[in-house]
Known about the structure:
Elements lengths: L6 H5 L7 E3 L4 E6 L2 E6 L10 H6 L6 H11 L4 H6 L10 H11 L4 H15 L2 E3 L2 E2 L4 H5 L3 H5 L7 H12 L5 H6 L2 H8 L7 H11 L10 H10 L12 H18 L12
Antiparallel strand pairs: 1-2, 2-3, 4-5
Helix pairs in contact: 5-9, 5-12, 11-12
The protein binds a DNA duplex through helix 6, helix 12 and helix 13.
Amino acid sequence: MLKDFNLAQTLDCGQCFRWQRSENGVWQGIVNGKQFVVQEGEEEALLQDAFLSHYFDLERDYPAIRRALVKTTPELEKASEFACGIRILNQDPWEALCSFIISQNNNIPRIKGIISRLCAACGEPFEQGVYDFPSAKSLAAATEEQLRALGTGFRAPYLLDAARKVAGRQVNLEQVRAMPLDEARETLMQIKGVGPKVADCALLYGLHRLDAFPADVWIKRAMATYFPGKSPEEFGPNAGIAQQYLFHYIRCAEQEAPVGESANAQAV
DNA sequence: GACCAGGTATTGC
DNA sequence: GCAATACATGGT
């Protein structure tokens, strides 16, 4: 029995940008040069596919991780229960890095649009109208003007710098994966346009570093409200998962039951 | 027509 | 070091 896995929560929590939901809970996505179609409510079937099983991180014991998080930090109980269907995807590191460079000061629908155009312009076509995410090498061959024409705006030179450094192995993503967290962040931040937040996103969503804790405006606010003085390291080796639970909870649940009341502040 | 969006680089104190 | 400010673009 597959627990703690919900397709919609996982694909709609802002960690990926190339999945689309159509009617009846059907999701279509492009991953590593292939198109996939998966069905809400039939999550169990994904266990039969080795690639997707790994992509959705189904081998990992999330219920155990959740129990451990709540044991050390009981305030996480509500958020972790609310968002317990989220899995941290095993995405392509380069794609995740680019996606979160694009994400800065941007909104999710527009991020998706830019990525879609970027793929069509620079990625390999592998099916009618379907394109793979462009490699670092092919992106490095583009000009800043070409990238601006896709709507990337001031991020165009950032993408180029990332492409050049990754294609030239000045930043080796697989080496970054194995580095201590601080060193990994510093290495990614050599890329223009990559600050602490984007670096942590690349680490958590691209390199599956579950100890990375991306702190955006939402999370910073939530931390100040619910965990004043607490540092992310205190959440332990799965701090990134705690971050996801928090992020999803404050963005969804708070709208129905606004917090800020001191009575709720102790129970996230 | 401001204001905002899963930030970052630059500038000024 | 830390607080402002500009930055492209499209949607409310």
